[in-house]
Amino acid sequence: EVQLVESGGGLVQPGRSLRLSCAASGFTFDDYAMHWVRQPPGKGLEWVSGISWDSGSIGYAESVQGRFTISRDNAKNSLYLQVNRLRPEDTALYYCVKDSGSWPTLNWYFDLWGRGTLVTVSS
Amino acid sequence: EIVLTQSPGTLSLSPGEGATLSCRASQNVGSNSLAWYQQKPGQAPRLLIYGASSRATGIPDRFSGSGSGTDFTLTISRLEPEDFAVYYCQQYGSSPPTFGGGTKVEIK
Description:
- The complex is a heterodimer.
- Chain A is 0% helix and 53% strand.
- Chain A is mainly beta.
- The radius of gyration of chain A is 14 Å and the shape is globular.
- Chain B has strands at residues 4-7, 10-13, 19-25, 34-39, 46-50, 54-55, 63-68, 71-76, 86-91, 98-99, 103-107.
- In chain B, the strands form two sheets. In chain B, strands 2, 4, 5, 6, 9, 10 and 11 form a seven-stranded mixed beta sheet that branches. Chain B has a four-stranded antiparallel beta sheet with strand order 1-3-8-7, with no helix packed on it.
- Classes of the chains: A mainly beta, B mainly beta.
- Chains A and B meet through β10 of A and β5 and β10 of B.
């Protein structure tokens, strides 16, 4: 089955860190760029970060630049997001999403989404 | 970054009626690089349309997209009960990719 399964979310105090993980299955993981998109409770969607097939190209939203780090391990079919210096406004459901374009094409729109992992930042 | 404004915020319609959703960009969206997603409560978004007018795999033909430049439209020709949801547009022609605020299609 083609799927993405996120984990690692939870309740954390402001200023602390978390590492989000995403396990991919059912497709050739290293053929695709991957992204994180977040959604605050009851609100809209925000692209957070993306990484190319070989980790050679990485991008971040301005709102998380310098605090979040995306990475991937193709041998483990896994995507990660290290989230540091968390703020209350980072509270959101974090989705792992697959780029629709396969190597060497990067489309920047998303055809497979996980169910998300909830990060709540509160004291 | 490109700001996408979706209207209306909420659309109240009955099953069988048609729906027209608008997405307006703050600047030109290059190469008509616009996608539409559907999100039902408690679920992840699902890709409906890409390239402004191409349906994604498995999407029924009652969904259609149109537009270019800064003005885009998602049309649902006849609403089925499963179509009541929130719809988001997303531009991917410029970095960073950005989403609109969403239009909720609710049962009247």
